[in-house]
Amino acid sequence: MKYQALIFDLDGTLVDSVPDMYIAVNLMLTDLARPVISHAMVSQFVGNGIEQLVVRALSGDMEPNPLLTEQEISRANALFCQHYLAVLGQYSQLYPHVETVLAAFAATPKALVTNKARRFTEALLAKLGIASHFQVIVCGDDGAKKPSPEPLLKACQQLGVEPAQALMIGDSKSDLLAAQAAAMDALALSGGYHQGEDLRQYNPEYLCDQFLDIITAINR
Ligand SMILES: O=C(O)COP(=O)(O)O
Ligand SMILES: [Mg+2]
What is the similarity comment for this entry (predicted)? Predict the structure, then answer.
C-alpha cells in the first residue's frame, strides 16, 4: 500500500447517519409548525455541517431562503441539536464491512475528518464503537470545514505524515475538493450523500461503490 495514513470522512462514508438526522430535522420542523421534509431531501442537505442542514431544512431547498432571520435560524438550530442528541446513534448504522476494512489497515495511522460538530461526532463514534481505530479526530467546529484543506492538513500534521503520503476517503464534493486543495489523493465512495452529483467530475484517484472495495483499490 502506497499510503502512510488514511483519512476518513464520517457521514455517508463510515456511517449511514441520515436516519437519525431525518428524525431530528422533522421533530424540529414540527416544533416550529413548518412542513416536514423527506428522507431524500435530508440526504441531499447533509455534507456541509449542521448549520447548513438546518437552514436548508427550513428553506426546503439547498439554497437558503433569504427571508429567514438570524433568530429563526438560531432557534431551529437549538431545537435540532436537542432532538439530534436525543436520537443520535439509535437509527444510524455503520455501512457494511466498515470494521473489516478498518481492521485490515490496523497498522496504518488513521484520522477521522468530519464536518459534524465534535459533541455529536464523539457521541456517535462511542455508540458505534469505532473511536479506537482513529489516532486523530478533527471536527467541523474545531476550525474551518471541508472543502477547506485546513482540517485535512491538521490531521496529517497530527499524524506526522505529509499530505502527499495520505489518502482522503469520502462521499462528497467537500471531501474531494478539500483533498485536492491539500494536494492529497482521494478515494470517492459512490454510495453516500453526494448531493445528487457525479463525483467523477472531481477526478478522485479511486472510485468505489462499496466500502469493502477500498482494500483492493488501494492495495493494487
Ligand atoms: O455534518 C455534515 O454535514 C457532514 O459530515 P461529514 O463531513 O462527516 O460528511
Ligand atoms: Mg460525508
Answer: Belongs to the HAD-like hydrolase superfamily. CbbY/CbbZ/Gph/YieH family.
Q: What is the pLDDT of residues 16-62, one digit of tens each?
A: 999 999 999 999 999 999 999 999 999 999 988 899 999 999 999 99
In this structure, the answer to whether residues 118 and 54 fall within a common structural domain is no
pLDDT of residue 220: 74
Question: Apex CA 51: angle with CA 88 and CA 81, to 5°?
Answer: 30
The complex's ipTM works out to 0.94
d(CA 119, CA 139): 9
From 38, 66, 87, give the residue that closes a domain.
87
- Residue 40 and residue 112 in one domain: no
Q: Domain range for residue 176?
A: 5-16+93-219
Ligand 1 atom, smallest distance to 120 CA: 1
The size of the chain, in residues, is 220
116 lines ligand 1 (CB under 6 A): yes
From the CA of 113, the nearest ligand is: 1
Domain C-terminal end among 56, 87, 118? 87
Closest CA to 172 of 48, 23, 80, 16: 48
Are residues 133 and 180 both part of a single domain?
Answer: yes
> Which residues, given as ranges, of the chain have pLDDT below 50?
none
